[in-house]
Structure formats: structure tokens, C-alpha cells
Specification:
nine-stranded antiparallel β-sheet, 21 strands, 2 domains, single chain, eight-stranded antiparallel β-sheet
């Protein structure tokens, strides 16, 4: 081998070595993620949780805005109705502590592949976008929640993969998208999902009064003297008896009631069937008075018909709470202290209850018809009338004895026109000659 060949081989060896090095380097880089955040790190280097004053969540169905008013979370699209504070704070806390499980290097244009297409009209393709702002309206952060990440294993014997996480994007981080283990199932663009679910709940009901449609005339009133007593129908006539099956549920009326939504004042006229409006009053043994207005709700525009399925309910609450406890005779100082402490504790509880329920005044709640069905029963449904007294003179007649000692009464006679009986004249036969009295004797003698 000459010198020229040796040089040529050396050059080839150097080129091959360089090529291998380049391949190793580029190959290593191709499998490494270059996203800003790595697995195990939080999505945000530092999320400004304490500065958040409003959250706007947008999805395929619209936008809901949750904002602070006088230090309390409210829902703007529901005339600043109180929001579920626990749910809002939990959402913020979870974002501040959220860790990524995997990073995927991709630019913002790849958002539709992860279920974050802001131009899509379906929830599964659109996803949700949440914008967080401070008191001055400055944007603090924006995230998008996309498709769920499903495992390969079936979640149930009926099929379907189990969701093990979700895709998320921090709009300030353009290095890629992230997989997280949280599903955020309660996050929604529906305003009704963010409302505080506290509702009014009458306790120890003393009386219930329902008025006629469109007027102040009383349809019926039920009342009772004690908490353990049964209701009585005011003005019941002698032949009316209260149907306890239908009346008993009124003792716990609205005890576990829930509402579906709150109708904004600007939409109320279009949603209310005012011609069939009714009013009712509930009084309790503890001095609470609930004045209710119940109106059939028309279906919301653009939503599948719900006619007859929902009602609009407004509630005005007032109360006359006792100022002091009524003392019992001959109670000992020890008993008096126990009773007084219990009275003050109950008074405090009732005062708090009154404050919370008075805050519901002026709101129009959308409730299921089944929530008010018990209250909307007509008077005829609450009473049973006695059967008319039987005619004591009916089926009266002489009792006949049949063979075997059976007694029977003849059927009721039917009145028919009198029948005139026509009989032929009766001819009187001529008198026969009678023999003398001794004729028999002669005959008898001769027989002997």
C-alpha cells in the first residue's frame, strides 16, 4: 500500500467517525423533550393565586365569568349571584400546585390535535379556555384544557377506556403541550355549575296557604297547633275529610329542595308564564314567614323544549325571633342556665339562617316541577268527601221466609199505572131442593 492510499483511508476514517458522532448527537436530541417544564415540575413556575380577582371560562357553549365583589366570589352572568366559593378556590389551588407528567414539544398550531381548537363548535374539540385577571383587569395567566387521556385498558365490562389524565396548555409557554393526571371534571362553561347551592329550607312548619291563580283569594290553608299534631283544613265542611296521604308531605315542604339555575332579571319576562302565576305563604313555629311566588317557566330560547317541566320560584323571607326565653315554673338555677344556653345557641342559629335566606330575596330560581308539586295540589286533592247517606226507605218490604230458613226481601216495587180488571158477570145458580132433615136418618137406617 502506497502513501497515497494510506492518506485516503485516513480521510475516510475521519469522515465516518464524524458522521457517527453527528448521528448519535442528533438522535439523542430527537428523543429529548425541549419543553420548558419537565415531568414532575409544576405547570407554572409560580402561579399568582393570591392576585386572581376574576376568571373567565370559555367553551363551545359560551362564557361564564366568576369575579370578586365585596370580597365574595360571584357569577356575572347571573346578576352577580353568589358563586360556590369552595369550587372556585379549589380550582385556583389546583392550578398553583399542578404538576406535569409529560411534555410534548409542539407549537400553538397543534392545539386542535389536543382538543383545544378555539374555532370548534363541539365541546370535545373546543375544550375550555380559562383567563385569570387581577383587580386592575391585567391578565395573569391563560390555560386551555383539552382532551382526556385514556388508558389502553377497559374501564368497565361494557367497554370504553378509563381516563387517566388530560392535556393542558399554558398560553405563556409556547414550547409545547403537557399531560397531567388531573381531569378537572367540575370545570365548566355553564354558569349554573358555578352557583352557590344554598337554598331556603322551612323548619317546623305551622301552616301552609296556597292562593288561586292570578289573584289573592285563598285556595286552601292547612294549619296545626303543635309540631307533633296533624294538619287541619281551614273551613272544611261537614262532608270533607283531610286526605292525610297528600297533606303529610307538607310538614317537610322544601326540606331538601334544590334549584337548577337562577334566571337573570333581564330574561325573566321572556321566561315566565305570568298568567298562571300563583302565590303561597309558609309560617313556622319559630316565627319565620316565607312568601313564595310560583310561575310556570317557558323553555329557554335555543334550548330543547322543557315546557311544563320547570317552574320559576321567588322567595321573600322574614322572621320575628323571640327576644328572650319563656321561663318555666319552678326551674332550678342549674336548669335555667342549661335552658338559657340552649336558647341563645338556637337564637344564634336562627339569626344566621335568616340572614342567609333573606339574601335570596328578589332572585328567580328555576326549579324542577316536582319540587313544587306537593304545594300546588288543588283543594279537591287534599280532601275526601263522605258518600251520600243511603236511603233508609230503599228496598224496604216484608221479609219472606223461604225453604231452609232463608230470609229475603222482595225487590223494590216499580210503580206502574193501575190496571183495571174486567171480569165477566157471574151467574148465580138456582137453588137445589133440599131433602127433609129426616131423609138422612132414613137412609142411615136402611144402611144398617
Amino acid at each position: 500500500m502506497n502513501k497515497r492510499q494510506v492518506i485516503t483511508l485516513c480521510i475516510i476514517a475521519v469522515v465516518l467517525a464524524a458522521a457517527v458522532a453527528v448521528m448519535k448527537f442528533t438522535g439523542k436530541e430527537s428523543v429529548q423533550s425541549t419543553t420548558t417544564r419537565a415531568a414532575g415540575q409544576t405547570l407554572f413556575e409560580k402561579f399568582p393565586a393570591g392576585e386572581v380577582q376574576s376568571i373567565a371560562i370559555t367553551g363551545a357553549d359560551g362564557t361564564v365569568t366568576i369575579e370578586q365583589k365585596d370580597g365574595k366570589w360571584t357569577v356575572a352572568e347571573r346578576d352577580t349571584y353568589p358563586a360556590n366559593t369552595s369550587a372556585v378556590n379549589e380550582f385556583i389551588r389546583m392550578l398553583a400546585e399542578l404538576k406535569v407528567t409529560r411534555g410534548m414539544e409542539a407549537g400553538p398550531s397543534f392545539a386542535p390535535r389536543f382538543g383545544m381548537d378555539e374555532n370548534a363548535s363541539t365541546p370535545d374539540q373546543r375544550g375550555l379556555t380559562a383567563v385569570f385577571k387581577d383587580a386592575a383587569g391585567k391578565e395573569l395567566a391563560t390555560i386551555s384544557l383539552g382532551k382526556n387521556i385514556e388508558s389502553g385498558a377497559s374501564a368497565s365490562p361494557f367497554g370504553g377506556a378509563a381516563a387517566v389524565g388530560r392535556y393542558i396548555r399554558n398560553h405563556a409557554d409556547e414550547s409545547g403541550f403537557y399531560a397531567i393526571s388531573e381531569l378537572f371534571p367540575s370545570i365548566s362553561d355553564e354558569a349554573s355549575r358555578w352557583l352557590d347551592d344554598a337554598f331556603f329550607s322551612p323548619e317546623k312548619i305551622k301552616s301552609v296557604t296556597l292562593h288561586q291563580k292570578g289573584g289573592g283569594e285563598v285556595a286552601w290553608k292547612l294549619s296545626r297547633e303543635t309540631e307533633d299534631a296533624e294538619f287541619k283544613l281551614d273551613g272544611a265542611t261537614g262532608d270533607e275529610t283531610l286526605n292525610t296521604t297528600n297533606a303529610a308531605p307538607l310538614k317537610s315542604l322544601f326540606s331538601y329542595a334544590r334549584f337548577n339555575d337562577v334566571v337573570p332579571a333581564g330574561e325573566l319576562e321572556a321566561r315566565a308564564d305570568a298568567e298562571n302565576k300563583r302565590s303561597a305563604v309558609i309560617d313556622t313555629f319559630e316565627g319565620f314567614t316565607y312568601r313564595l311566588t310560583i310561575t310556570p317557566a317557558k323553555p329557554e330560547e335555543g334550548v330543547a323544549s322543557t315546557a311544563g317541566e320547570e317552574m320559576l320560584l321567588t322567595v321573600d323571607v322574614s322572621a320575628e325571633l323571640p327576644k328572650e326565653r319563656k321561663k318555666e315554673e319552678n326551674e332550678t338555677p342549674e336548669d335555667a342556665k342549661i335552658q338559657e344556653d340552649a336558647f341563645q345557641e338556637r337564637l344564634k342559629s336562627l339569626t344566621e339562617k335568616l340572614d342567609k335566606e333573606k339574601a335570596l330575596a328578589g332572585r328567580s330560581f328555576l326549579v324542577a316541577k316536582s319540587t313544587v308539586d306537593t304545594l300546588l295540589k288543588e283543594r279537591a286533592d287534599l280532601v275526601t268527601k263522605a258518600d251520600p247517606a243511603a236511603d233508609n226507605n230503599a228496598n224496604q218490604g216484608s221479609v219472606q221466609n223461604l225453604p231452609g230458613g232463608i230470609l229475603t226481601t222482595p225487590p223494590r216495587s216499580v210503580t206502574t199505572p193501575p190496571i183495571e180488571a174486567v171480569t165477566p158477570p157471574i151467574a148465580i145458580p138456582p137453588l137445589e131442593e133440599t131433602e127433609p132433615d129426616n131423609a138422612g136418618e132414613d137412609t142411615g137406617k136402611s144402611g144398617d
